[in-house]
Amino acid sequence: MTTSEGELSTRQTADPKNWTNRLRGWLEGLVPKGEALPDRQPVYVASWIYVFGVLTLTSLVVVIASGFVLSLGGVSWWHVSSLGHYVNSVHLWSTELFFGFMVVHLWGKFWMAAWRGKRALTWITGILLFGISIGTSFTGFLSQSNFDSQWIGAEGKDGINSIGVGAFFNVLNPGQMLLWHVVLLPLGVGLITLWHIILVRRHGVVPPLDADLEG
Amino acid sequence: MSRDRTPDAHDFPTRRYDLVREFVIALVVVLVLSGGLAAIFSSPDTKAITMSGWAKADPENLVTTAASELAGTTTSATYGAPYNNNAEGQKLGPLLLQKWGGVRIPVNSADLVLGPLSNVSDNPAISSALATWKAATTEQRTKWATDYVDAIGTAEADGEPATGAGGDPAKVKPGDYGPVPALSAGLLALAKTGGLEGALTSSGNFYGGDQTKSLLLLSDGAYLEDLAVAQKLGGDQWGMMNEVGNAPGQPWMWLYTFWYQVKPFSTSDNADAEVWGLMMVLTLLLMFLPFIPGLRSIPRWIPIHRLVWRNYYRRTRHA
Amino acid sequence: MSGLSIVMEGPGNYINWGVIQISVANLAIIAVMVLLFILALVVPFPSHDEDSDEEGHSR
């Protein structure tokens, strides 16, 4: 299990039975060497459609950052503070941007058939992210502690109860919904986003349909 | 497309590129956009409604709802799982999904009225009404409450004539309603003072946080729904997508809410379960698209990709 | 509340077309998304550096 240039550091051996070695080897093999943060990219990556992935990602960063600030003040802060209300507005609009950019990214990837070349899992994790994001925004709306939360909870419960899940995921329980919103679901979004990005860097950007290699 | 002959991305010629700079530029763009949109359009914050607000805005409806809880005819009383066993609940084809969830949040709808009233002290009228109710048989209670609800009746609406006292408890004809009028009026009086706000907490202690029972009572009444429908948030108004006022809602929910607007879902008793089932199937189709012949070939048949890669195609054609 | 909030107390502006009923705000968002998609496809992408002749593996 080597790192760079085939040399092991003084703290590493090549023992394949060692779990640490195996974990290190697995981690190092996730992305081809130099592909995690490359400074060159294939020549066919030359269209504005390609910016929507990073726009989605940066929107997520702003959503989480504004969420952090809201957490500092607590659940009711935005009702009583104009700064809190502004931060809430940033949280709402960055969420709208997040979904907008994500869907345009999805449209682009569909028309490029971006699942080709062993990239099915990249596509699948993307759709998974879409679904979990919807769930995260749903619990967010339930955590507003205002009329919206009351109505969305009252309506949403019927959908979730109808499939027998309502007792485990009680949308009328803001205490539970808030913790799903700030802990469990963002963790899911974060981990699957990481997975999705690792897959993109691992396989590289999908070549054009019917691409011919030069030379 | 029986065999994927996509070449390896790493085998292509490359050009200079700055990944981190692109990320930082995108971050700045998003910060400016969200900060700007937030400053211009803000975010809606319609205050939560209260029981006392309901009592003041629509006292007749609160009284009627209280009586209906005692009669066991409200939505929550006839809901089924997870609150009670009074209905089978929705099913998806032969699958009794709602029922299989089990009654794990037991709520006795009559207790939504009796519970808060039991905590009222120094009120002989309420105490006596409660005692009368407790001493009666189930059949007697149901008869009192049902007769009272019928006597209150409903106002004229949608071309249907008024029934009973036209929805006004003050105009109810004399009859044998037992303690129900006193209990219903008692709940209204309690609500008006604000005493009902925390009285239905499901948390079990001083620290609120679980509003299940309060929201069930509000949902059984008309006030919450009337306000929502006025803001076009109702289920048959594409409400899932919408927000109060002119605020943007959740446009990404368009397909989920669409099904509720059309038959057979719009007239189905199992609409929620059926729409969920349909959306699950569609989501799985989308998720596993790479493996579905035909669907996965659409990008080849409608070659929008030729726009994306036009520079590359032009160069390699002339190479 | 804060800023020049255009969010009002009354119901917002909606457009009705057959079974479709959509708020102006949501329609605007969707329209902008479609526009962005189209623009992303047709607006030329600057390819100012032509030092792209490094064959083989991109390292």
Order of helices and strands of chain A: HEHHHHHH
How far apart lie the N and C ends of chain C? 54 Å
Classification by helices and strands of chain A: mainly alpha
Number of helices of chain C: 1
Number of helices of chain A: 7
Tell me the count of domains of chain A.
2
Largest sheet properties of chain A: none
Pick out the low-confidence regions of chain A: none
Tell me briefly what this model is.
The complex is a heterotrimer of chains A (215), B (319) and C (59). With 215 residues, chain A is an all-alpha fold.
Can you offer a commentary on this structure?
- The complex is a heterotrimer of chains A (215), B (319) and C (59).
- Chain A is an all-alpha fold and 215 residues long.
- Chain A has 2 domains: 46-112; 114-205, no CATH class.
- Helix content of chain A is 64%, strand content 1%.
- The radius of gyration of chain A is 22 Å and the shape is globular.
- Chain A starts with 18 loop residues before the first helix and ends in a 12-residue tail after the last helix.
- By secondary structure, chain B is mainly α.
- In chain B, 49% of the residues lie in helices and 1% in strands.
- Chain B contains 15 helices and 1 strand; from the N terminus they run E-H-H-H-H-H-H-H-H-H-H-H-H-H-H-H.
- Chain B has helices at residues 19-41, 51-57, 59-71, 97-100, 111-118, 124-135, 138-152, 180-193, 212-220, 223-230, 254-261, 271-287, 298-301, 305-308, 310-318; one strand spanning 14-16.
- The longest helix of chain B is centred in the first third of the chain and has 23 residues, at 19-41.
- The two termini of chain B are 26 Å apart.
- Chain C is of the alpha+beta class.
- Chain C has a domain at 11-43.
- Chain C contains 1 helix and 2 strands.
- Chain C has a two-stranded antiparallel ribbon with strand order 1-2.
- The longest helix of chain C has 19 residues, at 24-42.
- In chain C, 15% of the residues are buried.
- Chains A and B meet through strand 1, helix 2, helix 4, helix 5 and helix 6 of A and strand 1, helix 1, helix 4, helix 9 and helix 10 of B.
